[in-house]
Design a protein that fits this description.
The complex is a heterotrimer of chains A (390), B (559) and C (296).
Chain A lengths: L2 H7 L1 E6 H11 L4 E3 L7 H13 L5 E3 L4 H13 L5 E5 H6 L1 H9 L5 E6 L13 H4 L7 E5 L2 H18 L3 E6 L7 E6 L2 H7 L23 H33 L6 E4 L6 E5 L3 H14 L4 E6 L1 E3 L3 H8 L4 E6 L9 H10 L7 E6 L9 H12 L8 E2 L2
Parallel strand pairs in A: 2-3, 4-5, 5-7, 6-7, 10-11, 10-13, 13-14, 14-15
Antiparallel strand pairs in A: 1-8, 6-12, 9-11
Helix pairs in contact in A: 2-3, 2-8, 4-6, 8-10, 11-14
Chain B lengths: L10 E2 L11 E9 L1 H5 L6 H9 L3 H9 L5 H7 L3 H5 L11 H15 L13 E5 L3 H12 L3 E5 L8 H4 L8 H12 L4 E3 L7 H10 L2 E4 L5 E2 L12 E3 H9 L9 E5 L3 H12 L3 E5 L11 H9 L3 E3 L2 E9 L2 E13 L6 E15 L1 E4 L3 E2 L11 E2 L2 E2 L12 E3 L10 H22 L17 E6 L23 H7 L9 H8 L13 H4 L6 E4 L2 E4 L9 H5 L5 E5 L3
Parallel strand pairs in B: 2-20, 3-4, 3-6, 4-5, 6-19, 8-15, 9-10, 9-15, 10-11
Antiparallel strand pairs in B: 2-23, 7-16, 12-13, 13-14, 17-18, 21-22
Helix pairs in contact in B: 2-3, 3-6, 4-6, 7-14, 11-12
Chain C lengths: L22 H13 L3 E4 L4 H5 L5 E2 L5 E2 L6 H14 L6 E7 L1 H5 L2 H9 L5 E6 L34 H6 L5 E6 L3 H12 L5 E6 L3 H4 L6 H10 L6 E4 L3 E4 L8 H6 L9 H27 L3
The chains are: A alpha/beta (390), B alpha/beta (559), C alpha/beta (296).
Chain lengths: 390, 559, 296
């Protein structure tokens, strides 16, 4: 069956996470795709260019000399009113840093997949979320996905949320565990995706027919108001995502939530984590439940803006929260740990929060280790700083 | 919901009044030019050259003749101080203004262009005594203003010095006749062979006219005290020239020494050369000091006249059938006023010349005896003020009778000045406002200023170096054989090329440079001129600096 | 005689914040007029960005996108492709960047855009230094010029950006000067009619940075051309060289004498600079002669 036929009808394919991302991008019909290759994102680029070569993808693909130029190209393309997609990883994301701020400041609803990879130096090529978490203040909406299927679905949902909020969205998937792991993926039909995602038609854009400009120097007052407007847009994102995901679920029979609660009913302890670690944690939770321990998993799918209300609800009545951070913010420890402490601070009967630096640098964290961490947490006093564990 | 960021830029900067930044504001001006300042008739030279450049030769002629009814004459014999003053001289070579004037003047004669009749006729009568350049110029201007003009001329033909002083090889008679006739055709009451000889005649003129302009010239020959003018081998230059110009060459032998350094002496010498004489010119001044035009001297030398400059005659005697002139080398020291000088003889500078006769042409004084009561004198001249008014409130004077500036165009300019002064006076008697003296040739939007534009005010980079139109002269042999005009006219290609060399100093050519070079789009074309937008002009001065004609200037502003 | 084409369809507005006498604004005015209304501008941080106006007021009548300093050509590429995707292939994308944003920090992405032959017109408004930050050196600053970061005069020569761009083999590379407005307009119009990456660097004397009176910007630009310090030429398809102004009537010393940034320059240094200019000029003349002889 050729690709076009598959796309029209929808079908299950065996795809890696990267291929699923490319399929998600293809189905979202972006018009401009500046992209630069970097391990382990490269297959996204090559899948897209292969789609274009076979005639199933007609976006303008730009292949500049750097990720910096990729993002530089993305922003005005988006402001011109075209749907823009790109993908990167690690160093590439870091090189984009300045432009990430620029994109959100420009209210450019770009969607970018980021394959989470360790940041240098020294050189390493393992799953680690430090690259994207280091961009948490850049004004991008951040989603972390657990699987290839979620990656595909999230890219499409991301466009809907981005274009409604006029904010850029980053969809992060862990290197190799998700990016290169192959699994059966339901690829929706193009028409079904089109029905879910209307064409991008911003009211204001760069257009010679109605000349207006972006980027002129503003006053203190305008800058202040502009930042307020970004914050207001961010605040709408959890609801917009929930709405998009709900709609997706109605149309395609699966949803991913904003914050997923897995077997949390009656849980005295919950594991909180993001990305591929969630898959491992599910197994650990199943094992612990089987052993009679009331333990659940809280999967943080939307990290930026942090869905504080949903997290507070998810953690209400839980005695111990065990945060697994596959990232490292020197001097602060685990980023999710710190974020969660801040989110739960001041709530009545706040849970005890245990921050564990587990899996940093791609170190393997098997299910039994997670069960071990939960047991140790239950029996010890929580510490304000994150703890290195393996 | 798609919320529109409030931060796009949708308006223009035109609401920002950057004009508040400046300390000086440029303006579009119609300024004077060095050529006009130097011009004896204050001609709007840049204007008529500009019209000629656009091939509007009729317009050029009309602009020219507003100041001078004799462009074909002046184009031949003017001493053209305009060219000495020309800003272009500081770039490559001065413009050939005089030749261009001749081109336009000749074209007017060829095509038979006539002056338009006055638009109003006035009751007042003005008597002009003297039909030379000053008198004719005044008659022309006064007729154009509508006055009834009586022109009294002692001789049988109009033209004065232009006819009996200037030889036809410099000024062809048909040119003189044509331009004089055109003035008369304006309706001048000409009385030839008439001359107020004594006080009663002047009184009668004053009784029958509202104003009198005296332009009788300078007829009385100056003479060298060392010479006995009773001798047959001594002659007066002006008399000799008048005879020669009338076709009657006095018989004076083969070899002539002509004494004098001015145009009149050159005219005598060159006319004598054409009559077959061997001519030596003895001038008191060194060659560069001679009041004659340099071209005249050059041409005389080409024609085989021997020049002995910086020398004076001490004594002349007739012996052995020839005249012996005892001469001495001297240093000529000009005095403070024109016509005044002293000489310092060189101790061992004695030498002798031999000839058959001597003709002196060292200047003329006016005959002022019969002008009547109340006309004060200044030395040998009638005393006049800057407006040619004499001490009598009904009498004005101009030309050689009142001035040591003895060039034809000086006289024309004085005639013009007198005419406007008479007009002002006569209108004042009736309580009328004076007529505009100067025709403003510039764009209506331009502010007229009197200052002259210096070379640094011209953006000379706008012009490519281009050689001055070559002066063409008849070959010396042909000149002597035919007696034809020495100076040849420019052809139309030469003339048009020459017009493009003009910097148009102070006269806007509407090239839009001021508009094009403004970074603030603050200069706009308006009608036939330019307007500076005070709301936006930051006062940088680029429009002034880059103007190829010096037609923008800066005015300081106090806020 | 004087021949300046009348300015029509102005695309720059009055009221902008350029210094009095600013040649940047003047050049932009003519470039924009030549480009016309179906154009989008990309203007990175630079004097031109200030001239473009404080939000919500623009001095340009066309849409402007202001990217980061180092990303003009990349941004222009993105804009170009977005327009292409929308079927607006005739809409021009015009970069108006400074020399800092072109020769230095923006060089990498410019080279990349040129390599891809993106359909953009990139105009470098070259004032030979970081003038918007108060005059520090850029790699476009000429030998011996004093700036805030080279107070004793720059020790190295100006980068030859024109040759670098031409070496990409793009269809059109040219220099231009606001002192030669007709030539500038001609080049912009010529470039406008070409598809692919086009690069024009326009010499912009900076009154403040070079030390010039308010009315002397065009004089300095003119002297730069007349001395051969900034020759006006075009290189087409990386090969055909046309020297637009072939006369060089003025010594470099004339040009230097106008500017405070060369104050107190040693005679030997003037001679060195003259020799550098002579050598570059002669090389250019040879290439122009060779280019004229080669089949088009």
């Amino acid at each position: 069956m050729d690709a076009i036929a598959k796309s029209a009808r929808g079908a299950t394919q065996l795809l890696t996470g990267n291929e699923a991302v490319a399929w998600g991008a293809r189905l979202a019909r972006p018009q401009v795709c500046p992209v630069y290759p970097i391990t382990p994102q490269t297959p996204v680029l090559e899948t897209l260019t292969a789609f274009q070569a076979e005639g199933t993808f007609d976006a303008e693909i730009i292949t500049p000399e750097s990720e910096h130029s990729v993002m530089s190209a993305c922003i005005p393309a988006s402001l011109a009113g075209t749907r823009v997609f790109t993908a990167t990883a690690s160093q590439g994301l870091l090189l984009m840093h300045e432009l990430l701020h620029y994109a959100s400041g420009a209210r450019a609803p770009i969607v970018m997949a980021n394959v989470n990879r360790t940041v240098a130096s020294p050189w390493a090529f393992w799953p680690d979320q430090t690259d994207s978490l280091a961009q948490r203040d850049t004004g991008w909406v951040q989603l972390y996905v657990e699987s290839a299927q979620e990656a595909l679905d999230s890219v499409i949902q991301a466009f809907r949320v981005a274009e409604q909020a006029l904010l850029p969205v980053m969809v992060s998937l862990d290197a190799f565990y998700v990016s290169h792991a192959m699994e059966p993926v339901d690829v929706p039909a193009q028409a079904d995706v089109d029905a879910f995602l209307p064409p991008f038609a911003p009211e204001r854009r760069l257009d010679t027919a109605q000349p207006s400009s972006w980027g002129n120097v503003v006053s203190q007052d305008m800058y202040y108001r502009h930042r307020q407007a970004i914050e207001e847009a961010m605040a709408r994102v959890p609801a917009l995502l929930a709405q998009a995901d709900g709609d997706w679920q109605r149309r395609f029979g699966r949803g991913w939530g904003v914050v997923e609660r897995y077997r949390c009913d009656g849980a005295q302890a919950v594991v909180v984590t993001m990305g591929s670690m969630c898959g491992t944690a599910r197994v650990a939770v199943d094992d612990m439940r089987e052993a009679g321990l009331p333990v659940g998993l809280v999967k943080v799918r939307l990290f930026r803006p942090l869905p504080v209300a949903a997290l507070r609800a998810a953690c209400a009545g839980v005695r111990d929260v065990v945060v697994l951070d596959r990232n490292h913010s020197p001097g602060a420890g685990g980023v999710l740990h710190q974020e969660l402490r801040a989110a739960l601070y001041g709530t009545t009967n706040a849970p005890r929060i245990h921050g564990l630096l587990a899996g940093v640098g791609g170190v393997n964290v098997p299910p039994r280790k997670i069960a071990e961490f939960v047991r140790e947490a239950r029996d010890s006093e929580p510490r304000p700083e994150s703890v290195w564990v393996r | 919901m798609n919320s529109i960021p409030p931060i796009w830029t949708t308006a223009t900067t035109e609401s920002i009044r950057t004009g508040t930044w400046r300390a000086a504001l440029p303006r579009h001006v119609q300024a004077s030019s060095p050529c006009r300042e130097a011009c004896p008739v204050s001609g709007d030279i840049a204007t008529w050259i500009g019209l000629a450049r656009e091939r509007d030769f009729r317009g050029a002629w009309e602009a020219l003749t507003r100041h001078n009814p004799f462009p074909a004459i002046a184009g031949r014999i003017c001493h053209h101080p305009c060219e000495a003053a020309c800003n272009r001289a500081g770039f490559d070579e001065a413009l050939s203004i005089c030749k261009l004037e001749r081109f336009v003047g000749d074209l007017a004669i060829e095509r038979g262009w006539a002056f338009e009749a006055p638009t109003v006729e006035r009751e007042e009568r003005v008597a002009i005594v003297g039909g030379g350049p000053a008198g004719l110029s005044a008659a022309f201007q006064l007729r154009r203003l509508g006055y009834r003009v009586t022109l009294v001329e002692a001789r049988g033909e109009l033209g004065g010095l232009m006819r009996h002083g200037i030889p036809s090889y410099r000024l062809a008679r048909e040119v003189l006749d044509a331009e004089v006739a055109r003035v008369v055709a304006l309706g001048v009451d000409v009385r030839l062979n008439a001359k107020p000889e004594a006080a009663p005649a002047w009184a009668e003129l004053r009784r029958t006219h509202d104003a009198v302009f005296v332009a009788t010239g300078a007829q009385r020959q100056k003479r060298l005290p060392a010479l006995d003018y009773g001798q047959p081998w001594v002659a007066d230059g002006a008399a000799w020239l008048a005879s020669a110009n009338a076709g009657e060459i006095p018989a004076l032998g083969k070899r002539l020494v002509v004494i004098g350094g001015g145009s009149a002496a050159l005219d005598v010498a060159r006319s004598a050369r054409r009559a077959g004489h061997e001519v030596t010119l003895l001038a008191l001044e060194a060659r560069g000091q001679m009041p004659a035009q340099r071209e005249e001297v050059d041409e005389a030398l080409e024609e085989g006249i021997a020049l002995v400059d910086g020398a004076m005659l001490q004594e002349a005697s007739h012996a052995g059938g020839e005249v012996r002139l005892a001469c001495r080398r001297v240093r000529f020291v000009p005095g403070e006023r024109r016509g005044q000088f002293s000489v310092v003889p060189f101790a061992d500078g004695a030498f002798e010349l031999r000839a058959d006769a001597i003709v002196t042409s060292i200047g003329q004084d006016p005959d002022t005896a019969a002008l009547g009561d109340g006309v004060a004198l200044d030395g040998s001249l009638v005393a006049v003020d800057a407006q040619q008014a004499t001490a009598r409130d009904d009498t004005w004077a101009g030309g050689d009778v009142a001035s040591m500036a003895r060039f034809v165009t000086d006289a024309i300019g004085q005639g013009k000045r007198a005419a406007f002064a008479i007009d002002r006076a006569l209108r004042a008697r009736r309580g009328e406002a004076p007529a505009a003296e100067r025709w403003r040739p510039g764009p209506a939007a331009a502010i007229a200023i009197e200052a002259s534009v210096p070379l640094p005010a011209i953006a000379t980079h706008a012009y490519a170096p281009q050689a001055r139109a070559a002066a063409r002269r008849l070959e010396p042999a042909a000149r002597l054989a035919s007696g034809a005009e020495v100076q040849l006219a420019l052809d139309i290609e030469q003339a048009l090329a020459e017009t493009t060399r003009c910097f148009s100093c102070g006269t806007c050519i509407r090239c839009d440079t001021c508009v094009a070079v403004c970074p603030d789009l603050a200069v706009v074309r308006e009608g036939d001129g330019y307007r500076v937008l005070g709301d936006y002009c930051k006062g940088c001065g680029l429009c002034v600096k880059e103007c190829p004609t010096g037609s923008m200037d800066m005015v300081q502003e106090v806020r | 005689m004087i021949a300046i084409a009348p300015v029509q369809d102005e695309m720059l507005c009055s009221g902008h914040a350029a210094c009095p006498g600013c040649i940047d604004a003047l050049a932009a005015r003519h470039i924009l007029a030549a480009m016309g209304p179906d154009t989008m501008a990309v203007i990175p941080p630079s004097c031109m960005a200030i001239i473009a106006g404080p939000q919500p007021m623009s001095s340009l009548k066309i849409p402007v996108y202001q990217p980061t300093l180092e990303s003009s050509a990349a941004a222009a590429s993105g804009l170009r492709r977005a327009l292409d995707a929308q079927g607006k292939r005739d809409t021009q994308v015009l970069v108006l960047a400074g020399d800092g944003g072109t020769y230095d920090i923006g060089f990498q992405c410019l080279s990349s855009a040129a390599e891809r032959n993106e359909d953009i017109l990139y105009v470098c408004l070259d004032n030979e230094g970081y003038m918007n930050t108060g005059a520090q050196k850029s790699s476009s600053t000429p030998h011996f010029a004093r700036t805030g970061s080279t107070p004793s005069g720059k020790l190295s020569r100006k980068k030859n950006m024109v040759e670098i761009m031409a070496a990409h083999g793009i269809p059109y590379v040219a220099t231009a000067s606001a002192s030669h407005l007709a030539d500038l307009r001609y080049k912009v119009e010529k470039a406008k009619a070409i598809r692919g990456t086009r690069f024009i660097t326009v010499l912009i004397p900076c009154l403040d940075g070079w030390g010039l009176p308010d009315d002397a910007g065009l004089t300095a630009a003119r002297y730069a051309v007349e001395s051969g310090a900034f020759p006006l030429y075009e290189i087409e398809d990386g090969a055909r060289v046309t020297l637009n102004v072939t006369a060089r009537p003025r010594p470099v010393a004339d040009y230097l004498a106008l500017q405070r940034r060369y104050r107190g320059m040693a005679e030997a240094d003037v001679a060195t600079l003259q020799a550098e200019v002579d050598a570059a000029w002669e090389a250019l003349e040879r290439r122009a002669a060779a280019g004229a002889a080669a089949p088009a």
